[in-house]
Amino acid sequence: MNNLSLYGWNDTLFLLKQASQYKHLFHGRVAAVNKTNYEVIAQSGRLLCELAGNMLYGRSSFEHPCTGDWIIFQPFEDNKGIIVDVLPRKHTLYRRKSGTQNERQAIASHVDKAFIVQSLDANFSVRRTERFMVQIAEENIHPILILTKSDLEFNRQKVEESLKHIGRQMPILFTSVFSPETILPVRKFIKQGESIVFVGSSGVGKSSLINALCELTVFSTSEISKSSGKGRHTSTRREMILMKDSGILIDTPGVREFGLASDNSDTLSDIFELADFAESCRFENCTHVNEPGCAVVDAVNNGLLALAAYNSYLKLRKESWYFSTSEHEKRNRGKSFAKISEEAKRIKKR
């Protein structure tokens, strides 16, 4: 028997279930999504479930369960069931669906915290961290940056300087699975009943970090590649596990591309700390590119705002806009963003 409160079940979810026409049936949480079925944690144990016809054919793929979703199911055999409903999602990490411009893909739902995992080798990228932060902040999920492989040789001062604008908004932890004392601070951020999703690109050590946190081999990891010096990617699906006497950890496959599924310009402004400067702009609807009296551009020119961060802001703002607008708006405003790009280049040359 499972205590579902350890997996995040609470009074709010109970009330959401009461609104469903299937409230008399059983509920559980999706632990993993396979190609044709779902692994579900229920009070009775772990089940393998499929979608009911009304779910499979009556809803879009976006509405199908993702890892972390709370679902209602009808058992029909030992350890098997049929999913008939999904409770409304909260604090869901999305990304833009690959190959599309404005379709979202749910990665994990009912998430409290997100561990953005970056490794201190050639894979390290401040820009990638900013991208994750924007999407995480969109859903009011608390971000923590975990820098792995600190046993490797790296310039800590340079890394900290590049992350200065991010470090004021979230904790940054340097870790190595070979130094248990560096894992302890990470463990302190995981509370019982909380759900934590791990995101990052391939080879950064997400699975190794989870194994170190759990102090046992939960997920398999590959040996270091002799040609690249990096760990080979092994996670192939999003999977949830319960950490002993602690929270719920959700591992995700490494991603080469994490397209924004956000349309909130305020989130971008907060991530890049533009708000304080923007308050002094001459125009209330300033785009922070070429308007006279733009305090943000002045801050870039005066070295108060890093040029690299400013250029990243412009790039992500354009991507966010493309995600949220119609094809007609894209055609009508495409020239405007071309102008923004050209102006950003001129700022760089000043």
From TrEMBL:
Q: Which family does it belong to?
A: Belongs to the TRAFAC class YlqF/YawG GTPase family. RsgA subfamily.
* Functional description taken from the UniProt entry: One of several proteins that assist in the late maturation steps of the functional core of the 30S ribosomal subunit. Helps release RbfA from mature subunits. May play a role in the assembly of ribosomal proteins into the subunit. Circularly permuted GTPase that catalyzes slow GTP hydrolysis, GTPase activity is stimulated by the 30S ribosomal subunit.
Record keyword Translocase present: no
Record note on quaternary structure:
Monomer. Associates with 30S ribosomal subunit, binds 16S rRNA.
**Know the name of this protein?**
Small ribosomal subunit biogenesis GTPase RsgA
Native organism is Sphingobacterium ginsenosidimutans
Q: Where does GTP bind?
A: T148, K149, S150, D151, G200, S201, S202, G203, V204, G205, K206, S207, S208
Q: Which residues cross the membrane?
A: none
As cofactor, the record names: Zn(2+)
Q: What is its main location?
A: cytoplasm
Compartments, as annotated in UniProt? Cytoplasm
In terms of Pfam families, this protein maps to:
RsgA_GTPase
Outline the extent of the CP-type G domain.
Answer: 100-258
Could you give the cofactor binding note from the entry?
Binds 1 zinc ion per subunit.
